[in-house]
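Researcher: Re-running this chain for the archive, since the previous output was lost when a drive failed. Same request as before.
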Amino acid sequence: MFKQIKRYLHIYALFVKNSVMSEMEYRANFIASIFVELAYFFIKVIYVMIIYNANVEINGIQSDTTPLFMGTYMFMTGVYCSLFLPNFLSIPGYIYNGQLDMLITKPVSLKFIVTLRRFGLGFSLPNLIGGIALIIWGWSNSGVSCSIGKLLGFVAFIVIGTLLCYFVFILPQLLSFWIVKNDGIVAVTFSVWDLNQMPMDIYGKYIRFFGIYLLPIFVVANFGPQFVLGRLTPWEIIWSVLSVVIFGLLSQFVWSRAMKKYTSVNN
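Model: Regenerated structure tokens:
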């Protein structure tokens, strides 16, 4: 098992290296993508500043902590865009263009190579760096000390959120095995993702229920700041772990069904 893990880590490192080298071949596009994301970042900072200066309180959430939520959202956006989004968006092309036939012949896990072979840097870099800066700003304003327990808990929720990004957002793309066009469904998932920009406390109970249990988007980027502020219940902490298991099994089940559904383009 150790040899297998080491082998796959080596392969993934090659994926990352090749992806970065590919982006650097077109440096103008790479630089342009960074500037585009920087523009979005500053727009979001202006949005944060407006709320921050409003000095309002909603359901016990002070506006001073808004940068903590926005920063976590932006950091997780960077994680999603770098690790998963380029791969997920490529799945329909693999199916319809016959590239999946070639990938099946590779001596590694098909799911591994399909969902992790690409790494995006240009669009994700500003979100990762800017997100960390906003997290530090928001945490310092929250009045909560940066203890080892709080820091480890926050990092644990980042890991949980990263796993959920993979397990949840691969599902709409796997529908490509059954339907020709899934653009509408994918667009809806992007819109749902943006709910994480603000604390989930500003939404009604039905939206919170949907975003925690049915499509655990709030677990991805809202539970970390909520944990830091001491606003998570013991059940919500337990559910964050259970959601990873449940949606991990669900994504594997759908993947297995999709592979049985797939027919080579050469047939």
